[in-house]
Every structure is written in C-alpha cells, then in structure tokens.
Amino acid sequence: MTTVSRRRFLQGAAGLSLALPALESWGQAAAPARRVIFVFTANGDHIAQRMATKHETNFAFADMLSPFEAYRSDLLVLDGVDKFHGRLPAAERADGHQQGGSALAPWKSGTGSFPLGGNETQTIGYVRGPSIDKALGDRIAVDAPGLRFKHLYFRVGDSSNHIWNTHAHAGPEGTQNPIPAETNPFTAYTRIFAGVDTASQQRLLRRLAMRQSALDLVRGELSGLQAKVSAADRARLQQHAESLRDVERGLSALTPQNAACAPLTLGAAYNTTDATRWRDVGNLFFKLSAMAFACDLTRVVNFNWSGNTSDRVYRTLGLTEGHHTLSHDGSAAAFTNVRRIKKLLFEASCQLHQELEALPDGAGKTLWDHTLVVHWSELSQGDTHQTDKDLVVLAGGAHGHFRMGRYVNLQGVPKRGFSNLLLSCWHYMGYPDVQSWGAPELLPAGGGGIPGLT
Fold it and tell me: Is there a contact between 80 and 409 (Cβ–Cβ < 8 Å)?
C-alpha cells in the first residue's frame, strides 16, 4: 500500500481543527502487494525419479510431482539447485539436515550448546545470520510501517525448537539467533487476527465517516468566506480548499482492508501435536496464511510441514517406518515409499494453492495472482545427504514476474545456487538492489539472482 509520510493537520477558517492520522491506503488505490510463502518438506526426495520428461515447456512429471500437474502453467520447476554447502569450512558447517534446513538463512554455522533430546550438547549448530523471511520482513516494514507482522513462521508437529527443527533465524549477521516456530494454529489465530473482525471494521468506517462530515463542514465555511477577504487571503483559502479536496479523495479511496479480509472459522480445537492430525494442522495454517495476506497483516510466511529429520509415520499410506528412517535406507523399496510420502506432502501443499485462489485481490484477480510460493527441502536426497541437486518448485502468479510453465535444469555452467534463488526472491519482492546476501562461499558468480527465470 502507498504510505502517508506525515500526519496531515488541517485548520478550518472558522477554527475547526481536523487532525488525521497517517493512513496507509492514502490517495489512489495501491498496486496489489507482493507476497511470498516458503513451504518446506523434509528429507529430500529421489533425484532420479522427479521427471518423466525433461523439457523446458513439454515437461512431464513423474508420479511424485503429479499433484502439481493442475498448476503447471503457474510453475517454475528448478531441478539441480546447489546449496554449495561443501564450500563452507568444516568447522563452520553443520550436519546436512541442519545446514540444509537453515538454507533460508545462507550463512556459516556456529558452535555452542544446543538442546538435543533434552540435553545440552556441544556441537556445530545454528547459523550465524538471518533467514530471508526475517530479513525481507525487516525491509518491507521500512516501506510499509503499517504492517502488523514482519513475517510469520509456522511448523506442523514437533513443538521443540532445536537445531534439527529450526528454519527461521533473526540474526543479525554473525549472530546465532533462532526463532521459535508457532505450532498451534488456534493460538496463532488468536494472536495474529486480534481486532480483525466485523465490529472492528465497522468502528473504523464510522470514524472515517465522521472525518468526512467534518471536511464537508469546513469546505462550506471556506466557501462563505471567499467574498469577505482580500485577494491574497482568497488565494490562501483556495490553496487550503485544494488541500481539503486531497483529503476528501484520500478518504473516498481508502479501503481499510481487502474486501476478502474476514474472520475465519477454525472449527473445534484439538490436540495439534497429534501425529494423525498433521494434515488438518497444515490446512489451518494455510488458511491463516492466506487470510493474513488478504488482510495485509504480513507479506512473508515461512511454513514447514515438519522439522528436519522428520520421522513422522504416514500410516494412511500403510507405512510403519518413519519418513527419516526410510529416506536413509537407499533401497528401491524405500525409495518407492519416499516418493509416496513426497507425493502425499505435495498433494497436501496444493491446499495452500486453493486457499490463495479462493480469495480475491483486486479486479478479477486473486491472492494466487499476487503471491510466490517456494516449495523446497533441506536435502536433495536423504540417503546421501546431498545438497547439490535440490528440487525447488516456484508456484503462483507472482505478479507475472517469473516466466512460469517451465522446467529448468540448473546443473549447467555457469552454476547458480540456492542463495542465488533467494536473491531472485528478493528481486521479485521489489528489491533489485539486493545483489549479494549471505555468506559469499554460498553465492557463486559473485551474486545476483538466477538468470533466465524472468
């Protein structure tokens, strides 16, 4: 939204004072906000079984990625993304799951005491720098100070916040500062949407109507004074009348919130740590995320289906072994089940797409048209702990910033990595000046986004 830089204080000719607060939606209707949500699934996938056909536009998904087929025209499938973690010094590089799970914070890791299984263990752990959700949120807050939240950070399942689970970091650079995730969508809703209800909106509209009435009164008094003052004073009154018209136009155009912004019905509360309810919890977080975008409470969300090394047992698939255990097996049978799990998680992730499509955002558009969804994982493949051939799927209309409907293999030369991709996200969000961010070892070619995506 366009932001008013200062309070406007208007003094009526008959002594009527009109003090208006800085209103974020002043003047002409602002362009739809740019938004991004990062969606994490754990333990990598199966590199050799991602695509049935590798072609830029005539690509075909293997079964694991088939849930995305309905969205192919709004997808940018990036295959072979390298995190370049092998370039970090061994003393500043954590375990593959840890370092990979912190990839939204592309910094070196530090040492210290970290809670592992309830014990304080001396090991390499948290990264020393902010994650993109926090850093982007800080930058956006400068340009849109009216936002309630710089970013939101959600995780499904394990409520422990330790080095195996944490994906968001506050920094600043050189500082270990992990951010605890919200794991209960019911308590998150209460905190995030306080005051976002019909009664609050009606109170705001009544206040605006009162200010409009005051403007009408002042304008009428100005008209009556025109014939009673000198030419110089008439010029001053005319200038003041123009100022009043500016205020009136601002009030006329003011939309307190997107028309889609409304309270949510979450249903009856339940135990959100119940492993069998993982999909229900995720769906609620998706509803919260989409509505937070619609209400312009935030423009950046970091969502995680689990922590790193998630060993959730997906019993609806008939499985008895956990996800992390299967990902380290390496057998053909284990890979088959890993692909089944990832397909289930991608299918569940499409619920977010549907939530974004369901909420209008401007004339003939929806939140889907104005949001970038980044699907990612901490590893390329679990049994090898690889981070050099990652799969990242960009989804959404994203304001038409990216050339969607394509498959791009990034294993060629010159190589670009995950940090370059994060820079592409910075650029999409409206900050092309950010050309270098994170540890330089993780940023090949000196910086910049991934070429050819836009």
Answer: yes
Q: What local confidence, expressed as pLDDT, does residue 39 receive?
A: 98
Whether 192 and 152 have beta carbons less than 8 Å apart is answered as: yes
User: Domain span at residue 228?
Assistant: 8-26+200-253
Same domain, 322 and 233: no
Domain match, 49 and 176 both: yes
Question: In which residue ranges of the chain is pLDDT below 70?
Answer: 1-30, 116-121, 197-226, 229, 232, 234-257, 413
* Residue closest to 355 by CA, chosen among 257, 287, 259: 287
Give CA–CA dist 358/154, Å, rounded.
Answer: 21
User: What is the distance between the alpha carbons of residues 106 and 422, in angstroms, rounded to a whole number?
Assistant: 9
pLDDT, tens only, 10-39: 333 333 334 433 334 334 456 889 999 999
- Residues 93, 141 within the same domain: yes
Query: What angle do helix axes 278-294 and 185-192 make, rounded to 10 degrees?
Result: 10
In a domain, 158, yes or no: yes
| Strands 109-116 vs 35-40: parallel, antiparallel or unpaired | unpaired
- 189 and 207: one domain? no
Copy the structure tokens of residue 136: 């982007």
Give the DSSP H or E segment for 11: strand 8-11
Same domain, 172 and 205: no
Backbone phi, then psi, for 324, in 5-degree steps? Answer: -65, -40
Whether 306 and 362 share a structural domain: yes
The separation between the first and the last C-alpha atoms of the chain, rounded to the nearest angstrom, is: 24
Percent of the chain with pLDDT over 90: 69
CATH number of the domain that residue 106 is part of: 3.40.720
82 and 192 assigned to the same domain: yes
Residue 302: closest CA among 98, 449, 139, 155: 155
Q: Which amino acid is at 130?
A: P
